[in-house]
Amino acid sequence: MAMAEEEQKPLAYVPEIVLKKRKHKEESIALTRKNQLELGARAEKKRRVHDIKRPEHFVKEYRDRELDLIRMKQRTKRPKTTRSAVPKSKLLFVVRIQGKNDMHPKVRKILYKLKLSKVFDGAFMRASEGVLEMLKRVEPYITYGYPSVKTVTDLIYKKGHGKKDNQRVALIDNNIIEQALGEYGILCLEDLVHEITTIGPHFKEINSFLGPFSLNKPKDGLQGKKALFKDGGDSGNREDKINDLISKMN
């Protein structure tokens, strides 16, 4: 009995001012939470209203896409002498810089074929007649030029990804390269860079193995203009100046 009485300890005394502060803090937290929920509900309602597209919006999108198709056809009808000059290099690096809802499906299909499914995706390409023709068709949405050895090396080492078992894998291990391209004598990153910069005999196999390069949006260097680079815009052939742009996106 005495032991039970010893175990019973009196409740700790809590000053009234402390109790008032606790109550005020709890009420403040509850009020803040209520305000957050109300703001969230209003934002969600506003977002749902904003997402509802009016008929005129669909009409504008349709007209923009049809106009895009007309312009694409006009670009391909230009005389070959004015359409594209002979490239100074057989190696190109192409970056998608534009294109969302205003693109015609045929334009989008070409961009996908070029492995440029997203804005700021980039890819190496051989400057063949067929490739130059496709680039002309999607010219307002891409920019390209002649990458230097340093640019190729930086892209492969920093942004390089390959495809293995339909999975995207970073090129951080030479074993990955050897397993995928060893039969062509390409065993490491240095071999990969050399084959790309020299447009070697297995350039096609390497390009099939490599995924698109996901670049960052540059802080400057793009103005949001579909005009050609030579006319003060963003698109088309930048020649050697592509290296300056890539350095800001890598």
TrEMBL record:
Domain Large ribosomal subunit protein uL30 N-terminal eukaryotes span(s) in chain numbering: 14-79
Name assigned to this protein: 60S ribosomal protein L7-1
Organism: Linum trigynum
Statement: the UniProt record of this protein carries the keyword Ribosomal protein: yes
Signal peptide, first to last residue: none
InterPro entries named among the record's database cross-references: Ribo_uL30_ferredoxin-like_sf, Ribosomal_uL30, Ribosomal_uL30_euk, Ribosomal_uL30_euk_arc, Ribosomal_uL30_ferredoxin-like, Ribosomal_uL30_N_euk
GO biological process terms, semicolon-separated: maturation of LSU-rRNA from tricistronic rRNA transcript (SSU-rRNA, 5.8S rRNA, LSU-rRNA)
GO cellular component assignments: cytosolic large ribosomal subunit
Similarity comment text for this entry: Belongs to the universal ribosomal protein uL30 family.
PANTHER family in alphabetical order: 60S RIBOSOMAL PROTEIN L7, LARGE RIBOSOMAL SUBUNIT PROTEIN UL30Z
GO molecular function: RNA binding; structural constituent of ribosome
Superkingdom in the source lineage: Eukaryota
Domain Large ribosomal subunit protein uL30-like ferredoxin-like fold positions: 92-142
Keywords for this protein: Ribonucleoprotein, Ribosomal protein
